[in-house]
Specification:
The chain is about 35% helix and about 20% strand. By secondary structure, the chain is an alpha/beta fold.
Length: about 450
């Protein structure tokens, strides 16, 4: 079980100059919200509810289950919403909803990102449906903040369950989690008795693509600060200049210049010695942080997605294939990345390197076709410029789904083809001895692609 630090201790550890919003984050009207006053029994007249709140105030020193204010995290100002679990289990009631709404309004007025530090068991049952409808209210505020082009980050503390997970948590752009934290829609007392406890933890959520990273408490300030610096808009206008394509890294000991034949291009792209996506990303960025997963149960280790800071200070989003067949979760994660970058006004770089979309039975059951369609749509609808560099294999639609129309570049180690030469030969009923000639006929070399207008140019070292 993760440590359950008080809200103020968490804020002290993460933020400098924390300033609580006036009235705890309410607009003043919430002080008289029709629940019989500070010590009344609430909108349902729940017996002893007022006394329970009085005990919670005495125990925690807080007036409600959330503490909201502004602070600076490693140099980046933000609005912070911290849950106090010792106050009635960090539950969401009407007054907590008042505070969260005020926090989001403040974020939009001041153009600040929102960080939710969650530790909650869910909605406050003593307020019945009045409490449950706060989830709609929170979701509405989150949607307005999203539409304003401001990033939202969540840290899943222990526990992050119920409506808090299903709104502020899973609804955030980036989700970090503390080791050992419970992260689930179902709280610990309402799960089936024979349920696998691992399914309700942070590690399982990371494997299932619902959490981006598990961060030890001692590293949280630095990681959160880097994310905020990458996602916070530098000004009022989006970055409308396309990202520069990386320079070619080149294969150690490989032949210089473009390949002489189609088959030579294929062999160079398939070489185990050729630089892969990780090498390109390391050379291109000073530092970067990764998104993980498609948010609906899938994670493809063959696709890297995230945001990085270049040495010139510019932030660029990236989606990079790593040379393996791209699985449905990979396409969905890339689409998630492109859409998030579009909302935040951050240009995108894609690195194409795949023999094609995964076509096994598991991929089909996971929706290979719809996932590829989603990636095509995200690129077609992109609200920011997208730059593509083909660094290896460009295998059919699985590669094209991440290639920017009109702004695709290629390295001397790459090729792009409507289909693999071996598959083309098989379809045309040609023997294995004709695969090389088929590769030439497909005109898949870097220089062929430039001549055909598919690529803008071949990048040099």
């Amino acid at each position: 079980m993760a440590d359950r630090l008080p809200a103020r201790a968490v804020l002290d550890a993460l933020a400098d100059d924390f300033t609580e919003l006036p009235g705890g984050g309410t607009d003043g009207a919430a002080a008289d919200d029709g629940d019989d006053g500070a010590d009344g029994d609430g909108p349902l007249g729940w017996p002893d509810y007022g006394a329970a709140r009085a005990r919670a105030r005495a125990l925690t020193g807080e007036e409600e289950s959330v503490v909201c204010g502004t602070g600076t995290v490693d140099g980046t100002p933000a609005v912070l919403v911290a849950f106090e679990f010792a106050f009635l289990g960090g539950s969401l009631g009407r007054r907590a909803g008042d505070r969260i709404e005020a926090a989001h309004r403040c974020a939009r007025e001041r153009r600040l990102p929102v960080v939710s530090l969650i530790a909650t068991g869910g909605s406050r049952m003593q307020e019945g449906m009045v409490a449950l409808t706060q989830l709609q209210r929170v979701a509405r505020q989150s949607a307005l903040t999203r539409a304003a082009g401001l990033p939202q980050l969540a840290v899943a503390r222990d526990p992050t369950t119920g409506g808090g997970w299903a709104t502020l948590g899973a609804g955030s752009d980036v989700v970090l989690a503390l080791p050992g934290a419970q992260v689930a829609f179902a709280g610990s007392r309402v799960r089936p008795p024979d349920a696998d406890p691992a399914a309700y933890g942070a590690a399982e959520k990371l494997a299932a693509g619902q959490v981006d990273r598990i961060v030890p408490p001692g590293e949280l300030r630095g990681v959160l600060g880097r994310w905020l610096s990458l996602l916070s808009p530098p000004g009022t206008s989006p970055d409308t200049a396309p990202a520069e394509p990386p320079r070619a890294l080149g294969t150690p000991g490989g032949e210089p210049g473009p390949p002489e034949s189609g088959w030579a291009a294929v062999q160079r792209a398939r070489s185990p010695h050729r630089p892969r996506a990780d090498a390109y990303l390391e050379a291109y960025f000073e530092f970067r942080e990764e998104l993980s997963g498609d948010r609906c149960g899938g994670n493809d280790p063959g696709v890297r997605c995230g945001f990085g800071r270049r040495r010139d200070g510019r932030t660029v989003a990236y989606a990079a294939q790593c040379g393996t067949p791209t699985r449905p979760a990979g396409f969905r994660t890339a689409a998630r990345l492109i859409r998030l970058a579009g909302r935040l006004g951050i240009p995108v770089l894609t690195l194409v390197d795949t023999p094609g979309a995964a076509n096994d039975a598991a991929a089909e059951r996971s929706g290979a076709g719809p996932a590829v369609a989603e990636a095509f749509a995200a690129l077609a609808e992109a609200r920011v410029p997208v730059t593509t560099l083909v660094i290896g294999e460009g295998g059919s639609g699985g590669a094209l789904a991440l290639a920017a129309p009109g702004n695709t570049w290629i390295t001397p180690d790459g090729y792009f083809s409507v289909i693999a030469p071996e598959s083309a030969a098989a379809i045309l009923k040609r023997g294995p001895d004709q695969v090389r000639a088929t590769a030439d006929a497909l005109r898949l070399r870097p220089q062929d692609l430039v001549e055909l207008g598919v690529a803008r140019g071949v990048v040099g070292p």
